[in-house]
Design goal:
It is a single chain. The chain is of the alpha+beta class. It contains 7 helices and 11 strands. It has one domain: ATP-grasp fold, B domain (D-amino Acid Aminotransferase, Chain A, domain 1, 2-Layer Sandwich), CATH 3.30.470.20. The protein has helices at about 25-30, 55, 100-105, 130, 135-150, 185-195, 200-210, and strands at about 1-5, 5-10, 15, 35-40, 45-50, 65-70, 75-80, 85-90, 110, 155-160, 170-175. Helix 6 (about 185-195) crosses helix 7.
Length: about 210
């Protein structure tokens, strides 16, 4: 997605549901570059892995999604969307990976999802070039487009800014709440009746406070 406020892409990725020994060949055919983030789709879905070399790919456990790692200065932006309301919070993330890391590291580095509330970076003393939030107009366009295409009212996305750029962003993950989509309007109306001037923003604050991801 492109606009005057910035560019939003999704990293190159590959769905894998085959024998682990065939993963390196599948990665080559798909044109993905190491390192790769491995996201399991079933058990331990909150545990991610970073694979540095082709051999480490054979140690992964499908089904999973492999996603190219994009350097982003160790900070990601969690964007919560409820109806037309948008709220962004910063979270610490993985540090940049350079050529030396690729040469000196092998195997699979496992880590929990780093977007939890305990990893908040909102109050940290960060480089402004890294910590600057995505432009509001860009987020509004993105949220509107996702609502239109997916039919969702309640969801959140994880965004990163490509390191060394100001306006190049990637959506690296998305979470939604299937059981609440049809109820969100009624919930907002009920909250409004209890005196909350902006019920969607109130719901957002509750989600951010309680969210495990």
């Amino acid at each position: 997605m492109f606009s005057s406020a910035g560019k939003v892409r999704v990293p190159k990725q590959l769905f894998v549901n085959t024998d682990p020994s065939s993963i390196p060949a599948a990665v080559r055919r798909a044109g993905l570059s190491l390192p790769l983030v491995a996201k399991p789709l079933v058990a331990k879905s909150h545990e991610l892995s970073l694979a540095y070399d082709p051999t480490s790919l054979t140690k992964l456990e499908p089904p999973l999604v492999l996603q190219e790692f994009v350097n982003h200065g160790g900070v990601m932006f969690k964007v919560y969307i409820v109806g037309d309301a948008i709220r962004v919070v910063r979270r610490f993330s993985l540090p940049n990976v350079d050529e030396g890391d690729l040469s000196n590291n092998a195997g699979v580095f496992r880590f929990p999802r780093v977007s939890c509330a305990a990893a908040s970076a909102d109050d940290a003393d960060l480089d402004p070039r890294v910590a600057e939030l995505p432009p509001r107009p860009l987020l509004e366009i993105l949220a509107r487009e996702l609502r239109r295409r997916l039919g969702l009212r309640l969801f959140n996305i994880d965004m990163i800014r490509e390191h060394g750029t100001r306006d190049r962003f990637y959506v690296i993950d998305m979470n939604y709440f299937p059981g609440m989509q049809s109820d969100i309007l009624e919930l907002a109306q009920a909250i409004f009746c209890f005196g909350k001037a902006d019920p969607y923003m109130y719901i957002l604050e509750l989600l951010i406070k309680e969210s495990p991801v």
